[in-house]
Write a structure and sequence with these properties.
Elements lengths: L5 E4 L10 E9 L4 E7 L6 E7 L4 E2 L6
Antiparallel strand pairs: 1-2, 1-5, 2-3, 3-4
């Protein structure tokens, strides 16, 4: 995943967790963990997650 781009996030350890699109805000080079941001549908509040591993992120499918 690249900082400044969108990615699909699939949380590990969350039963029934579905993938959803996030914005990759930054990476902590010392830990290798990403900070991502997203909003829930119908809500304007930005939710920030700062303990996301690379394994939980994938590139979004290419636009057709």
């Amino acid at each position: 995943p690249k900082v400044g781009e969108t990615a699909l996030y699939v949380p590990t350890g969350v039963e029934g967790g579905e993938r959803f699109e996030v914005f990759v805000a930054s990476i902590d080079r010392s830990t290798g963990k990403y900070t991502v941001e997203y909003t829930m549908e119908g809500d304007d509040d930005v939710i920030v997650l700062d303990d996301v591993t690379a394994a939980e992120l994938t590139e979004p499918p290419a636009a057709s």
